[in-house]
Amino acid sequence: MALRDIRPTVRRRASRVSSYVVFLAILAVLVSLADWENLSKNFLRADVAATMFPMVWRAAFNTLWYTAASFVAGTILGTVFALMKMSKGPLKWFAVAYIELFRGLPAMLTILLMAFAIPIAFSSFKIPSTISALVALSLVSSAYTAEIIRSGIEAVAKGQREAARSLGMTHMQTTMSVILPQAFRIVIPPLTNELVLLLKDTSLFFAVGATKFSKELLQFGRDAGTTNANFTPYMVVAVFYLVITIPLTWLVSKLEKKMAVKK
Amino acid sequence: MSETTSRARLHPRDTPDPNAPPIQVIDLHKFFGEHHVLKGIDLTVEKKQVVCVIGPSGSGKSTLLRSINLLEWPSGGKVYIEGIDVQDPDVNLDRIRTRIGMVFQSFNLFPHMNVLRNVTIAQEKVLGRSKEEAQQIAWDMLERVGLTDKASAHPSQLSGGQQQRVAIARSLSMNPDMMLFDEPTSALDPELVGEVLEVMRTLAQEGMTMMVVTHEMGFAREVGTRLIFMDDGQIVEEGNPREILANPQQPRTQAFLSKVL
Ligand SMILES: Nc1ncnc2c1ncn2[C@@H]1O[C@H](COP(=O)(O)OP(=O)(O)OP(=O)(O)O)[C@@H](O)[C@H]1O
Ligand SMILES: [Mg+2]
User: Fold this and answer.
1) Which of A58, A157, A233, B7 is deepest in the core (most CB within 10 A)?
2) Which stretches within A87-128 are classed as H helix?
């Protein structure tokens, strides 16, 4: 029987089944070849995991608060840059340059540069590397947030500004009380998405070092891994990240669906 | 006309002249790029007049209204509000806009605030009224438009007619000296048009100076004190609404009215 005689749905189902079979076969070969005993000795040791408690909670807390701090700072700064970019005149071009600069550089490079530059620039203040990294991440985040918020502002109905202005409200009053509150509502999904990305980016702080109490999750895991000469701490840290990010990601998709329905 | 103009010059700043006409437009032109939308409009609206503006789509009716409260900046000509040259750089435009109420076809209520807040926010922020005073006035205004029971509702929970009445209450709460309406009933289901026109009719009877762009010929005939027919950026014909609607003089007016009546 020639292939084209089979009905299309049947043919599609047949090809899907065969691709599953191939996939499973490859997986089976890999699984049987892997050295499971060694893997679990290196990655899944309960006693090593146990040594991480309770300090891992501290690291998780640090990760969360670094995320929150750079998110808040990034959103405030980002709002300012969004408004600047939408204005006319030299401020606009400053905002454009700023946004392009920080979106164009790898976050890691910005963090490293700040970690070197800030202590030199403000040497009399003894600024901890974590603070430098927080500043860097806030700057990076504000560049992305600025674009998100700008799209939100543009999505607010044009008549809203006109109605406010015709009531005699100033440009500033209109922006603060009428436009921004609506813009923020519109961009809640992409902003939450940015929060998830930021959470993962705090792991880049490991590059600048930290004290015992200021480590975030990844650095804590790395250090525990080195101390124990074992990879289990990475697995523990991975679980911590997922416990935070999966609910957040789920929340984003729920919010996106809700917003889509509203439109 | 020149007398009013010179009087306006004596009051170059924000002080309204109580004797000047509420609205005076002299040789107003507006370009959008190459597109010549207003081609020399001359218009004086006296106190307590209800001027209805009709005309085909794209003739510049909205642009005229929007130029009067400076949502659009004139490309040429003059706009005086209560004797004040609104293009004078020394003039505070926000203060002038406070005295001109504007009602839009699409209501433009603030969707993130309840009805009461919609009516109080500009009173507090612009006029500096206390919260209590603003709310008191808001209740009075909502009573005028018959919507006190919706004070805590959000705009999305209201019908179009109710939303438009809130928008009118919101404008009135600023104690404007005049009101501009840009097709206030065009977005409404037919059965909701009446309630909005009723509010506007009452307002006119109370002596509010009004300029109304509308397709409601009945309203223009019964409430309007003057009718303007615009076409292609010009005022083609104007006068008593009953006379024009019954007996239009210009061929373009005749052609338009034969289509809509
Ligand atoms: N912001 C703008 N930019 C460019 N062109 C514009 C703008 N606003 C209006 N126009 C054009 O100016 C012309 C007049 O528009 P306007 O809205 O004043 O007409 P209108 O008489 O109110 O019509 P309608 O009955 O459809 O509301 C139209 O051709 C329109 O496309
Ligand atoms: Mg219009």
Assistant:
1) A233
2) 90-104, 107-121
**Chain B partners within 8 Å of A162 (Cβ):** 71, 102, 104, 108
Give the predicted TM-score (pTM) of the model. Answer: 0.86
Q: Where are the domains of chain A?
A: 41-262
Could you tell me if the CB of B32 is within 6 A of ligand 1?
yes
Q: What is the DSSP letter of B71?
A: S
Distance CA B42, CA B40 (A): 7
Q: Helix crossing, A55-86 with A232-262: angle to 10°?
A: 40
Which two three-digit tokens encode residue A156?
A: 């607010």
Does the beta carbon of A87 lie under 8 angstroms from any beta carbon of chain B? no
Per-residue pLDDT, averaged over A155-164, amounts to 96
State ipTM. Answer: 0.91
- CA of B58, nearest ligand number: 1
Question: How many angstroms is it from B7 CA to the middle of ligand 1?
Answer: 33
- pLDDT for A5: 62
Our answer on whether the CB atom of B35 is closer than 6 Å to any ligand 1 atom is yes
Asked if the model's pLDDT at residue A28 lies above 50, the reply is yes
Q: A198: Cβ–Cβ under 8 A, 6 or more apart, which residues?
A: A67, A70, A71, A74, A137, A141
Q: Which residues surround ligand 2, an ion (CB under 5 A)?
A: B 62
